[in-house]
Amino acid sequence: MKETIFSKIIRREIPADIVYEDEAVLGFRDISPQAPVHILFVPKTAYATLNDVPATEAELLGKLMLAAADYARREGFADSGYRVLMNVNRDGGQTVFHVHLHLLAGRALHADFG
Ligand code: DGP
């Protein structure tokens, strides 16, 4: 896959506000937040889109979700709630082609997926 800005963030070549890290996942604040809390959880192994993740990497996708839940618990908004979502390709609104999970929180999010 083509190199993206997220690989550079993972390698600490460009700055980001990193809020989470484990052996497989890095979490950092979105540069253009859509909610008071907007974190991107990015696997350190790069795949361009969800379509490119092989079945052998099912655990990696689980780790992304669990990283978000862990962060929500740690920051104290797990019970009040949050949203996780992944954009895929053009119609999904994906702009950075390195798989990532968005975590949005800090305001009431309406069930509008437009
Ligand atoms: P998506 O549309 O799902 O591909 O989301 C990409 C997100 O990445 C978008 O919300 C803005 C964010 N983003 C793009 N470039 C940078 C960057 O250089 N730093 C950070 N922290 N976020 C970025």
Number of discrete domains = 1
Q: How many β-strand stretches?
A: 5
What's the gyration radius in Å?
14 Å
Unreliable segments (pLDDT under 50, ≥5 consecutive)?
Answer: none
Distinct ligands, ions and cofactors found in the model:
2'-deoxyguanosine-5'-monophosphate
Separation of the first and last Cα atoms: 29 Å
Write the CATH fold name: HIT family, subunit A
Which structural category fits the helices and strands? alpha+beta
| Separate helix tally | 3
Percentage of β-strand residues? 15-25%
Detailed description of the structure:
It is a single chain. The chain has helices at about 5-10, 60-75, 90; strands at about 20, 25-30, 35-45, 85, 100-105. The protein is an alpha+beta fold and about 110 residues long. The protein has a single domain (about 5-105), classed as HIT family, subunit A. It has a five-stranded antiparallel sheet, with helices on one face. It is globular. The mean pLDDT is about 95. 2'-deoxyguanosine-5'-monophosphate binds near residues 16, 30, 32 and 94.
Keyword list:
114 residues, alpha+beta, binds 2'-deoxyguanosine-5'-monophosphate, single chain, five-stranded antiparallel sheet, HIT family, subunit A, 3 helices
SSE diagram, text form:
Elements: H1 5-10, E1 18-21, E2 25-29, E3 37-43, H2 58-75, E4 83-85, H3 89-92, E5 101-105
Antiparallel strand pairs: 1-2, 2-3, 3-5, 4-5
How would you concisely characterize the structure shown here?
By secondary structure, the protein is of the alpha+beta class.
